[in-house]
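Handout, section B. The chain below has 589 residues.
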Amino acid sequence: MSSNSHNESASLSRRKFLEMLRNAGWAGAAVRSGLLPVGASSLAGAVAVPAFEQISAATSGVSWAHSNGRSAEMYLPETVGAGCAFLDYDNDGWMDIYLVNSGRCDFFDPKPPLRNALYHNNRDGTFTDVTEKAGVAGNGYGMGVAVGDYNADGFPDLYVTQYDHSILYRNNGDGTFTDVTEKAGVAAHGWGTSAVWFDYDNDGRLDLFVCRFVDFNKSKNKFCGNLQTKQRWYCIPSVYEPMPCWLYHNNGDGTFSDVSKESGISKSLAKAWGVVAADINNDGRMDLFVGNDTVANFLFANRGNGKFEEIGLLAGVGYSSFGRARSGMGVDAADYDQDGWIDLFVANVDQEMYSIYHNGKDESFADVAMSTDIGATTRLMSGWGLKFFDYDNDGELDLLLCNGHPDDKVDERTANVKYLEPLLLFHNTGKGFENVSARSGPIFSEALAARGMALGDFNNDGAVDVLVAVNNGAPVLLRNNVGAENHWLGIRLIGKKANIDAVGAKVSYQSGELQRHQFKVGGGSYLSSHDPRMVLGIGKRTKIDWIEIKWPEPSGKIERITEVPLDRYVTIVEGQGIVDTKPDKGTTR
């Protein structure tokens, strides 16, 4: 064998060996311990980087932390917040961060006052706090955030849910926001949780759905705990009365009309935590899947003419397979198996397992969690923020779950159930979901009180990153280190006749033998909002043959684009094709 052949063979052997070590999660340790030759350290360093790497506050500049104001009375809002968002508030092409905090209300008066936080992306992996200048500090006990351009001026606006009223911040386009809640008529007095912007009546304007939790105030706080010892713990929501959610119709003049009653939404009394808007029956109208706690989940089928029908029971998503209401919290919707129909997911509390509902194509769903790793893995866990996304850009939609029990004393009373729980990452193999948490980075070994979770590519490298909101703690910012190893195309859709955010669009694409599609749903996760751009992964293939956008109604237009770049972000405007490309990828590794 020639010297060159021998070196090539040795190199390939080292690569294969290191890849095996990476999959086992100990390549870096092998080098440090001397199990691998020093000459292989550079290669080992490359493969030892975790799939998701936690970025410290010292590195990112995100020094803010959530405070829940935990009290001896154990008011329920203390343990369920809060949310977060990725958004590009100044339209510079880089994702900024918004974080929601607790605040003043009838049971909590923090001194000094607490505030939410808006961090501007400096394009170098760091962020600057611009909350004071922007004017988005919040004015109540914060819960979540929904981002959407409700007035179609090209700048994303913020709807911040709170106990006991919510806020609409209009983006002024100059780095500042104005509180227009009163004028808009969307205060939603009560305990608001998750919210979503979507166009329910296909008039091209973004409407607003707001989840409401139970009938609650300081005077209605219940004692839950040990009557003999007087030890309290956080109540299970079954002791509180359900309340109707809100649906607000966008009037197109900066105001909204409360159509909760006439739409049929308010007929269903909720204890709602999470919501996602998606077209579950392919009829061109956006439906709503709502996760409820101790009452049945809702599936609001949009029947047109401004009317919704609640079909959760009939569809098989309202109750468990044993006919019991569970503790639905975080939710999402995506076509994870690429059969052309949107599937649903809901996370529950311990002893209940999480559910992945496969669409039966007839307004019915089957819970297939037990046939995957997901069922057994989550049996003793409690889930909040969650999202389907293709973290490694191989063309398959994976799943990230954020967990943590709502009762911080559960460890003392229940065996094998913990208040602090790890994140979970499931890789879509094309045949099912595989739990890859153990080999995806140290963060998956950490126990957290995780709540909200947002997805966004903060360094513009095509690998979608993660922001996790932690109850009574600092947020966790995770950089995705593996997505950029495969090829991708990122797209920002701008509707003209369709709603400007293109919520409800379907994007199909082909690369050689790979043909995939993604639906742009509204919302999803828990109390959080996501990077509006879509990332289309193609693995190691080197060309996208075409992409096709089916714009939501009232447009319904189908556009196919054949000249598409790779490994960058593009802006596609309805009727105009690609109007902008970003040739420089992010460099903040």
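Note. The mean pLDDT is 92. Compare this with the example in section A.
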